[in-house]
Amino acid sequence: DTLGLMEYVKGPDFPTGGVVHDLAGYREAMETGRGAVKVRAKWHEEVTKSGMPLLIIDELPFKVNKEELIKGITERAKNKDAGFEDITDINDESDKGSSVRIVIDLKRDAVPAVVFNYLVKNTKIEETYNYNMMLLEGKAPKQMNLRQILLKFLEFRTEIVIKRINFDLSKAKARLHILSGMKTVLEHMQEAVDIIMKNKDSKGAKDALIERFGVDDIQAQAVLDLKLQRLTGMEIDSILEDLRDFNMRVKDMEDILKNPVRIQYLVRKDMLTAKEKFGVDRKSEISYENNDINMADLVKKENCLIHLTHNGYMKRMPLNLLETQNRSGKGKSGINTGDGDYVSAIYSGSTHDMFMVFTESGQAMASYVWNLPDGTTANRGRHLRNIFETLKEDVANVLLLPEIEEGISVITVTEKGKVKRTALSDYTGTMRKKGVQGVTIDEGDKLVNVMLAKRYDHIMLVSSTGKAVRFEIDDEALQIRGRKSVGVKGIDLGKGAKVVSSM
């Protein structure tokens, strides 16, 4: 259905980028053929050396004139219009290419996000784009939804492939016809040469060849057009090889035209070739904030396995790809890790689950399983740094969360034995682009493990010297603390020792 297709066609893409939102209107367009979507500028905050806030516009909605936009903001700032009084200056620092950088200077106490919202309401920082998806059906225009348009496109591509095969088949048959005539005549080459030599002109020679060998006018002319150098044994063998080759081509193309599956394969091959040749990365960001619809409405909920490798590659794989085997079965490869890498963890969950990563410095970031590539057993997936743009360091651990529940705690353990317990509900901000500080790590220390726990659970820490300690999380010393706190000492470590494992 249309919603299923929207898992892959997540939203429109514009050559100038921008942030696409109001996906309820987009869904309506995909379902009915008519709707609207909003695109706003992409921006970020900066601070000058003197501590003054800056609002930086990085991308503009499609067809918005940059010069007119800057002129309009400047005039309203000079007039101190409501919402524009915090703007002190605006400069265009864009390069000569397509890169945009509009720098808006703000007063010291101004909040860039608030100023941007005023710009959205009062300028072309945000634009609305309407859908009216019309297609000719026969000779009459008809409004169609996404599924209908894709089916029509497939019909069109199928027609093109069939026409192309028929065109190539016609040419191949014509060549095969000529080669067949040549073969018939060249099997009696000396007699054919004698017939040609006895005739005074080419017409007489052609008629004689037609009468003697039963070939038609086109075939006889092709024989007469042969150069003497092509009458050697090697050249004749080449003609016979061409005959065999064109015979196979004709049979193959006739088989394609009778076989819808082979036609579908060629349609798919053409599309993949076009994708490889012309495909570009998405420029417009899709935002699911402040919408009547979210991504969960568009993604089918299904069980899957999530693989994480030591080098940071992650992928999801439908659970049904792994079939039940007998005890004596040899198993099935689940992932191709590549040289020097190996699987460090496997999780079982759903496409609607959230996964949260913790870096060695304590930063926490989260995304949904549906953002992972839907891999096969042959690939290794996608690197975590391609999922989280701001991830710059090694990951200590990953948590898979069906949902954020009350009463569940996050336990962090550092290499120097610091343990901290924090309510899972404190980590809701991990979906932000830069994540949140999940735990403060002392200098020279690093995070080694993160676990989920509930009341009355026990924790065990194991050191590099073989010592272990176990305690209950409800221990008075392990009270719930804030995300940014350091934690408490969980184990006495000797000189040079460190925590190597915890559970």
Describe what this molecule looks like in 3D.
The protein is α+β, with helices and mostly antiparallel strands. Helices cover 31% and strands 26% of the residues. It is built from eleven helices and 25 strands. It has helices at residues 2-5, 23-32, 66-78, 112-122, 146-186, 189-198, 202-213, 217-224, 233-258, 260-278, 384-387, and strands spanning 19-21, 34-40, 42-47, 53-59, 87-92, 102-106, 126-132, 134-137, 140-143, 285-286, 303-309, 313-318, 343-350, 354-359, 363-368, 382-383, 395-401, 409-414, 418-423, 436-437, 447-453, 458-463, 468-472, 488-489, 499-502. Strands 7-2-1-10 form a four-stranded mixed β-sheet. The protein is elongated. The relative contact order is 0.08. The model has no long low-confidence stretch (mean pLDDT 84).
Short descriptors:
11 helices; 26% strand; 31% helix; 503 residues; four-stranded mixed sheet; four-stranded antiparallel sheet; single chain; alpha+beta
Helix and strand layout, with pairings?
Layout: H1 2-5, E1 19-21, H2 23-32, E2 34-40, E3 42-47, E4 53-59, H3 66-78, E5 87-92, E6 102-106, H4 112-122, E7 126-132, E8 134-137, E9 140-143, H5 146-186, H6 189-198, H7 202-213, H8 217-224, H9 233-258, H10 260-278, E10 285-286, E11 303-309, E12 313-318, E13 343-350, E14 354-359, E15 363-368, E16 382-383, H11 384-387, E17 395-401, E18 409-414, E19 418-423, E20 436-437, E21 447-453, E22 458-463, E23 468-472, E24 488-489, E25 499-502
Parallel strand pairs: 1-10
Antiparallel strand pairs: 1-2, 2-7, 3-4, 4-6, 5-6, 8-9, 11-12, 11-13, 12-16, 14-15, 14-17, 15-20, 18-19, 18-21, 19-24, 22-23, 22-25
Helix pairs in contact: 5-8, 5-9, 5-10, 6-7, 7-8
